[in-house]
Amino acid sequence: MSENRIEIDPKEYVEYFRENTALLVSMDSNGNKNVMALDWKKMEDHHGDLVIRAQVAYSRYTYKLLTEGMKQFTINIPSDTNRNAVSIAGTYSGRDTNKFDEAGLETLPGVTIKVPTLKNCLLNYECRVIDTSKSDLSSHHYFYGKILKAFASKEIVK
Ligand SMILES: Cc1cc2nc3c(=O)[nH]c(=O)nc-3n(C[C@H](O)[C@H](O)[C@H](O)COP(=O)(O)O)c2cc1C
After folding, report:
1. I need a labelling partner for 89 at 20 to 30 A (CA). Which of 74, 79, 82, 138 fits?
2. Average pLDDT estimate for 135-142
């Protein structure tokens, strides 16, 4: 665990989750990771489990990884030091670009899952996909990730 963050109850500091674009990290079954920008996200109760619902378009490489790779993802809320990664993560595709190298993003091993979190973020959440469904938009799909661990940067912890 990074010294810069502490474990929190996932319902804490949720305003930072709501107000910022997230970086969603996913992984193929060989352990190759990818990152994409995600605005359409919601924290909610799903049949008794606290989940992050990520709305991902069918066209994204991330969709392929979430359905055919690890059924896990991390949600990372960038800080001032790595917020510039959002435009790279949200423009290029992991099909042909290593966005971690491109954006200078560093990772921390997942504590409960194989997918890593991103260093120097305001918030990190480790999630396991427990359900999926068609979204209200025909171009997108919902992934419901049960929150297994959550961390906040000491920058925002009071
Ligand atoms: C600020 C921002 C927010 C975005 N939010 C979403 C989103 O909520 N859902 C989605 O499917 N794509 C979203 N995108 C687009 C994807 O991040 C983008 O298509 C990305 O290149 C997909 O990467 P991938 O092919 O490696 O999965 C967003 C892009 C930006 C710049």
Report:
1. 138
2. 92
How much is the pTM?
Answer: 0.97
Half-sphere exposure of 126 (CA within 13 A, CB side): 18
Task: Ligand 1, residue 97: give the atom nearest the CA.
Answer: 26
Identify whether 141 is part of a domain.
yes
* Residue 158 resides in a domain: no
Best substitution site from 39, 42, 93 to test ligand 1's pocket, by max atoms within 8 Å of Cβ? 39
pLDDT band at residue 158, thresholds of 50, 70 and 90? confident
Copy the structure tokens of residue 145.
């990730």
Domain enclosing residue 148, as ranges: 5-153
Say if 142 falls within a structural domain. Answer: yes
φ, ψ of residue 133 to 5 degrees: the values are: -160, 165
User: What is the average pLDDT score of the chain?
Assistant: 96
